[in-house]
Design goal:
GO terms for molecular function: ABC-type ferric iron transporter activity; ATP binding; ATP hydrolysis activity. This protein is of the alpha+beta class. Helices cover 23% and strands 36% of the residues. The strands form four sheets. A six-stranded mixed beta sheet has the order 7-8-9-3-10-11, with helices on both faces. Helix 2 (101-111) packs parallel to helix 4 (145-157) and helix 4 packs parallel to helix 5. The two termini are 35 Å apart. The protein binds adenosine-5'-triphosphate (ATP).
Length: 364
């Protein structure tokens, strides 16, 4: 396995007179054996970052080292992609349909002109490790979803890469198998202590696999931290939204209180703040109740239910303060709540964030 050290990495594409700074000065070290996740919106440089590490793009500036070996330098590839010891997985699903499991797994070894006897040994070893021995002669159409995933992973790992690079690997999978695919990748990555970089726009991919994650915005890391820290303490509003559903509401902070409307308010986490801010609170940190108290929650005021709809195991309920219809909050409820009904709004105040006019988190 290898550590990856990236210093001031830049990739600028030029389209006529327009300059696209796809990767704009990234410095990061990914230690040997770590699973590192790159989360970011579409078009912000995730794939370019991965391709630079793979050696498929020439850096405009900056350097990349695998352990102490220089692999890319400004304007040149020092070590060609095929000599970097990497495995790249774009879509975990994509097996060759006209090849058996054995041939699918053997494919990268044959490409690398590995001797036949060694190929046989390696394919059988990894098939054993991944529970595929009994299906080596099967074609992909004869496999269960789980067996297909394991075959794809076996094919990626059979060359014993020192670095695994994954780009949106689960995006083509059904929701039902996506979770088990994530769990399998995580298990194998941890067991083998395989240095892994996974890029995705889906926080679930990153949160289920990565030990450390970087959020890339405009070609730069806006935050590098543990996935839970990125979720709980986002550096800014964009990171907060990328991490998962969050209510963002314009508020006024005055006299130690955050006002969502003139009647709905919670204590401010930072008594020094005064003025206009944007409040961020995740739906799971907000609750509706007939009572005014619940463990860990603070009563904020009266709200009216606008709509309650069932989405993925919860009743997404939208409410507004009774005195201001223009403010809306999304709440996760265990059951249907009748639109028009009035409820008490409770907020887990230690989880709220305030963002300033630049979107920076001022509650950190
Ligand atoms: P997505 O999630 O949509 O794949 P991404 O975060 O992976 O997006 P990149 O594919 O790295 O983003 O692209 C970053 C920026 O660089 C985009 O503006 C893209 O249009 C531009 N770009 C990428 N490759 C090229 C290229 N070969 N030539 C010109 N511009 C490019």
């Amino acid at each position: 396995m290898a550590s990856v050290r990236v210093e001031n990495l830049k990739k600028i594409f030029r389209r006529g007179k327009i300059e696209v700074r796809a990767v704009d000065g990234i410095t990061i070290t990914i230690p040997d054996g770590q699973a590192f996740g790159v989360l970011g919106p579409s078009g912000h440089g995730k794939t370019t970052f991965l391709r630079l590490i793979a050696g498929l793009e020439v850096p405009t500036d900056g350097t990349i080292y695998f352990d102490d070996e220089l692999v890319s330098a400004p304007g040149r590839i020092v070590v060609e992609p095929e000599h970097r010891g990497i495995a790249m997985v774009f879509q975990l699903w994509a097996l060759y349909p006209n090849m058996t499991v054995y041939d699918n797994i053997a494919f990268p070894l044959r490409n690398a002109k590995v001797p036949k006897s060694e190929i046989d040994k390696k394919v059988k070893e990894i098939a054993e490790e991944l529970g595929l021995t009994k299906v080596l002669n099967h074609y992909p159409r004869e496999l269960s979803g789980g067996q297909m995933q394991r075959t794809a992973i076996a094919r990626a790992l059979v060359k014993n890469p020192r670095l695994l690079l994954m780009d949106e690997p689960f995006s083509n999978l059904d929701a039902a198998v996506r979770d088990s695919a994530r769990a399998l990748v995580r298990k194998i990555q941890r067991e083998r202590k395989l240095t892994t970089i996974i890029v995705s726009h889906d926080p679930a991919d990153i949160f289920s696999i990565a030990e450390v994650a970087g959020v890339i915005i405009n070609g730069k890391f806006a935050q590098v931290s543990s996935p839970t820290d990125i979720y709980d303490n986002p550096a800014n509003e964009v990171v907060a939204k990328l991490g998962g559903d969050i209510n963002i509401v314009n508020v006024t902070v005055s006299g130690g209180f955050i006002y969502l409307s003139s009647s709905v308010k919670v204590p401010s986490p930072n008594p020094k703040l005064e003025g206009k801010y944007r409040l961020g609170v995740r739906p799971e940190d907000v609750m509706l109740s007939d009572s005014t108290d619940a463990p860990g929650m603070t009563f904020a005021g009266k709200v009216k239910v606008k709509v309650s709809s069932y989405v993925a195991g919860v009743f997404r309920t939208v409410v507004s303060p009774i005195d201001d219809d223009s403010v809306e909050l999304m709440v996760n409820m265990g059951g249907y709540v009748e639109p028009g009904s009035e409820k008490n709004l409770l907020i887990r105040t230690q989880k709220i964030k305030l963002f300033d006019e630049n979107g920076e988190n001022v509650t950190l």
